[in-house]
Specification:
Layout (H helix, E strand, L loop, with lengths): L15 H13 L3 H19 L4 H4 L5 E4 L8 E7 L2 E8 L4 E9 L6 E6 L2 H11 L15 H4 L11
Antiparallel strand pairs: 1-2, 2-3, 3-4, 4-5
Length: 160
């Protein structure tokens, strides 16, 4: 029987194939710093274009911090707004759709509630609804205690 596979041959350092391997490694992998910067840029672009009269005026470039991808989660950017409020921006990988989430404290004082924002009018509605509670989402007593659902670390990582 004739062998159809040829054994692997070492590639010379200056060969076209070696160069292609190097290019693929360089282009195919995005470092954490680049992921963070891209996530921050995407958040800024989304906020400036979809929320020009609200978040576009209130949230500065320096307020955003990019975070690299982790297994199963796209890179994201977060911005601390004060008073326990956070913005979280990511891109839905399958749809290439911007997802902006507002995260604010619950009135129970033990956790946070998040809501995905669907444009500037949605944000204005949420802001008007939360004004009477001092910027806290009303606690839903039918749900488990907020502390058992979600707590946030200093840079908005959900705790188990």
């Amino acid at each position: 029987m004739t062998e159809t596979l040829t054994p692997a041959v070492a590639v010379g350092a200056d060969s076209p194939l070696a160069l292609l391997f190097d290019i693929a490694l360089e282009i195919g992998t995005q470092g954490e710093d680049e992921q963070c910067e891209d996530a921050k840029t995407a958040a800024l672009h989304h906020v400036w274009s979809a929320y020009p009269d609200t978040l576009g005026k209130a949230v500065d470039e320096d307020d955003w911090s990019g975070r690299p991808a982790v297994p199963g989660v796209e890179p994201c950017a977060v911005a601390y707004l004060d008073g326990g409020w956070w913005l979280h921006h990511t891109v839905d990988g399958g749809q290439e759709h911007d997802v902006l989430t507002l995260i604010a404290p619950c009135t129970c004082g033990n956790g946070y509630v998040d809501t995905v924002l669907d444009g500037e009018s949605d944000l204005l509605e949420v802001l008007n609804d939360l004004r009477p509670t001092g910027g806290r989402f009303p606690h839903n007593s039918d749900d488990p205690d907020c502390d058992s659902q979600r707590r946030l670390r200093g840079w908005s990582d959900a705790r188990p």
